[in-house]
Amino acid sequence: MEIILAHAHTLMYTILALMPSRYQRDNLEAMLGRFLAADGKPLSHYSKSKSESTLSRFLNTYKWPTRKLIRHVRQQAIEQVNSHFPLGRKTFLQVIIDLITLEKCGQFKAFKNLITVYNGKRGLHIVVLYLVVGQWRIPWNFRVWRGKGTASPAQMAL
Fold first, then answer.
1. pTM score, whole prediction
2. What mean pLDDT do residues 4-10 have?
């Protein structure tokens, strides 16, 4: 357990160091604190150090190095998996494809091309590809399904 915590701390501080400004670092740290508190209240309005509007602005307005973050997290995941499986016999890799719907109500003018109805649910439909190796289930990639007339979720996954 201590090894996992050490890796989690290292990863967290590396991700924080990727933020371009101190202000963004503080906002990300507040958000990670909410998630890592594991008290069942991860939403931004439960944050005691930053306001809900500040955290919303951080997620929706400010530019931050998403690609660097994804590359770093993927590299860390690969290193963790490789370090727990000895050389020799190849590990079994399973790929899981999942369609997740984030239901939305109301008007979202900025997202009007992304909010669709699928299987009776109105919202943002995301196809997520997971890699499963041993005990790890790692979200590896995702795509937004854009609705009727575009590639189906199964075609997108392939």
1. 0.60
2. 73
